[in-house]
Amino acid sequence: ITIGTFDGVHSGHKEIIAQLKNEATKVDGETVIITFDMHPRNVIQQHQHKIKLLNTQEEKIELLEKAGINHLVIVPFTKTFSNQPPETYIKDFLVKHFHPHTIIIGYD
Asked: What pTM was estimated for this model as a whole?
């Protein structure tokens, strides 16, 4: 699994996707990208300027499909979702629904 906003499938994202595909192949698993509908900063920092995204949601879906991933999960990002404790997010969302073997994330 990898998790991120994927606000454009740029070279950094392509590297993460390549690592994701490589790890999935090693364990005979499937690739899963979890992304969000609404950029998290646009929800959390509503009073500031909205972040301009590189691609629309539709373009993002198309680009990630072309990248050859098995599953794309788009999570509605809300204040409630953002306020859950990290342990709850991991246990009740990631582990409960996806049973990840490996989680690959970028530097941030």
From this structure: 0.85
